[in-house]
Amino acid sequence: MFENLSSEILDKEFSKQPPYMEVVRAELSKIGAKIALYKGDTKKIFPEIISSLPKMDFIFIDGGHSLETIQNDWNYAKRLMHSGTVVVFDDYWPERVDAGAKPTVDSIDRSIYDVKILPEFDIFIKPYFKSLIIKFALVQKRHHE
């Protein structure tokens, strides 16, 4: 999700106005990694591009925050993983199950994936949230012996 989202989408996705894609591209270009950015709703974009994407080394899930969007992003991320891929979910909210990554992350099959909830990252305070604890979740395929 990049720039100029409608208020309806921002509300549905429990999100704030995202940065412009070119700003993100400029920042990421500094690290020297091969990146591809796509603008749009991943529920529409992924079906169109998934077959042309290579396996990824790193996947960062932090678009929309609705349960539907995060589950969709994980379903596609699994298809892009190889044995060494690291997937990081932003917005693992330990105290909420109506939005954020917690329901998806908690449902990941631990016999296939190693899942680690990282220590507290941030606390977001807004009147309608009171305080929202934000963590990251790290997911990798298990290495079977």
Task: Please tag this protein with its features.
145 residues; alpha+beta; Rossmann fold; five-stranded mixed β-sheet; 5 strands; 28% helix; 28% strand
Question: What this model shows, in words?
Answer:
With 145 residues, this protein is an alpha+beta fold. The chain has one domain (7-141): 3-Layer(aba) Sandwich (Rossmann fold), CATH 3.40.50.150. 28% of the residues lie in helices and 28% in strands. It has five helices and five strands, in the order αααβαβαβββ. Strands 1, 2, 3, 4 and 5 form a five-stranded mixed β-sheet that branches. The termini are far apart. The relative contact order is 0.14. The model has no long low-confidence stretch (mean pLDDT 85).
Poorly predicted parts:
none
Number of folding domains?
1
Number of helices: 5
CATH class: Alpha Beta
Query: How helical, in percent, are the residues?
Result: 25-40%
Question: Which word captures the global form?
Answer: globular
Separation, N- and C-terminal Cα atoms: 39 Å
CATH homolog superfamily: Vaccinia Virus protein VP39
CATH architecture level-2 label: 3-Layer(aba) Sandwich
Order of helices and strands: HHHEHEHEEE
The major β-sheet equals:
5 strands, mixed
- Tell me, rounded to a whole number, the average pLDDT: 85
Number of strands: 5
What share of residues are in beta strands? 25-35%
**Rg value:** 15 Å
CATH topology: Rossmann fold
Structural class: alpha+beta
